[in-house]
Design goal:
alpha/beta, Rossmann fold, 41% helix, globular
Length: 135
């Protein structure tokens, strides 16, 4: 499984990468602009990300803007909705307007509040239908 971790917090990036390491490749970027470029490049190379974890509060391009851009890129590449990336919002915020917007406007697939616990994270992936096969 190919994953993209978009988060400006070093510790969060490393924790998520460690959780995902047994299941495949995880690319890590520090802000939304880099995330959009990586996501677009992967689709252009026909090696799309299956899972994206996305922090809401980041410099340059915040999580809301990044989420909208990722979904727009999928449309531009003709990605069918059933094949679209699972995008999990990861944030310290809980029950905010930004969270509401991520689901209603940005088509996020899941949401988790920091600090992320391994068991809860893997359960969320299972719930979303992301098949985890150890490499």
């Amino acid at each position: 499984m190919k994953c993209l971790i978009i988060d400006d917090d070093f510790n969060s990036r490393m924790i998520l990468k460690k959780f995902l390491q047994p299941f495949g490749r995880s690319d890590v970027v520090t802000d939304g602009e880099e995330g959009v470029l990586a996501f677009q490049r992967a689709l252009a190379e026909k090696t799309p990300y299956r899972l994206v974890t996305l922090d809401l509060l980041m410099p340059n391009s915040d999580g809301q803007q990044t989420l909208r851009e990722l979904r727009e890129i999928e449309k531009e590449f003709g990605v069918d909705e059933k094949d679209s990336a699972k995008i999990i919002i990861i944030s310290g915020l809980d029950n905010t307007p930004q969270l509401h917007d991520a689901f209603s406007l940005g088509s996020a697939t899941g949401y988790m509040v920091k600090p992320i616990r391994r068991k809860a994270f893997l359960e969320e992936l299972e719930k979303l239908g992301v098949i985890l096969v150890k490499k």
